[in-house]
Amino acid sequence: MERISETDLILNDDGSIYHLNLLPEDISDTIILVGDPDRVPKVSRFFDTIEFKKGKREFITHTGRIGSKRLTVISTGIGTDNIDIVLNELDALVNIDLRTRSIHPQLRSIDIIRIGTSGAVQPDIPIDSLLISSGAFGFDVLMHFYEHQLNEKDGQLLQEFHKHTTHSHLNLKPYYAPAGKKLLKQLGNIASHGITLTAPGFYSPQGRQVRAKSSTPNLLSLLSSFKSSNGSLITNLEMETAGIYGLAACLGHQALSFNVILANRSTNQFSNNPLNVMDHFIELILNTIAKT
Asked: What CATH number is given to the structural domain containing 58?
């Protein structure tokens, strides 16, 4: 079996994977991703037991249990560039023999669940609510570097969005990736669903104007006005979901993204109590995961 080179798969001196600094036994088959490293203990404090803690750079990992369910929570930092690192290294931990640098003959599929914050682009979506991404368009470029395929229905949705954005002066080539069907069925009944737009930045790429002049002043109206032939709308903006969905599908894993809506960009409202709102939904999501 072909050996993966030292430059394609970099390991630390102790044999752990390069950026995450983890060994295969350090993680569970259910991975919770959060952006903020400070959010990792806010998730793991709901665990009944914590068996493992480790950190390197922005990648903090806690593994423990709720009842008999073993869970791992990892911080990714911000953006799909970090998602590229995290998902490839998680896959290596479960599907590559790090000693021989060979791919296991039988591949494992893990569950990857994002819990993140987001801003709504439709005026009727309330702040302090929870939204599940049934799929995500990516304005970033990550998935243009990987071979990935869409079914006919999702391919048509992407074509319609391409056509919609072509009418603007935006020089973009968005991609689309759907949620994992198994996780959407298992966990998708605790919140409403929508299509997420993953942006490559926080300010102008999400329609914000501070001092630097934006070349996309009508971005929010462009996104909120999209409606597919089957009635699907873009509901919210964030910075990781499309990359998580796309790479998870490429690698044979399940992925689902929960978005805690702390802002409504259409009405210019922001949550008055974001920390308590986040804690409430973290506990709700963890209790739901623990029952699966």
From this structure: 3.40.50.1580
**Has residue 86 got a pLDDT over 70?**
yes
Residue 233 identity: L
**How many C-beta atoms surround the C-beta of residue 7 within 10 A?**
6
> Would the CA dihedral through 142, 148, 151, 155 be positive or negative?
positive
User: Does residue 78 lie within any of the structural domains?
Assistant: yes
Question: Residue 1: what pLDDT?
Answer: 61
What pLDDT is attached to residue 154? 94
Alpha-carbon distance 99 to 109, whole Å? 21
Residue 1 belongs to some domain of the structure: no
The reply to whether 13 falls in a domain is no
**pLDDT tens digit string along 130-173?**
999 999 999 999 999 999 999 999 999 999 999 888 866 677 88
Total number of domains constituting the chain: 1
Residue 166: per-residue pLDDT: 80
Domain housing 72: 24-290
Q: pLDDT digits over 42-76, tens only?
A: 999 999 999 999 999 999 999 999 999 999 999 99
CA gap 164, 234 in Å, rounded: 12
Flag whether 242 is in a domain. yes
Query: Any idea what the Cα angle at residue 239 is, between residues 66 and 164, rounded to 5°?
Result: 130
Closest CA to 133 of 148, 112, 151: 112
Q: How far is CA 169 from the centre of its chain?
A: 28
d(CA 75, CA 5): 27
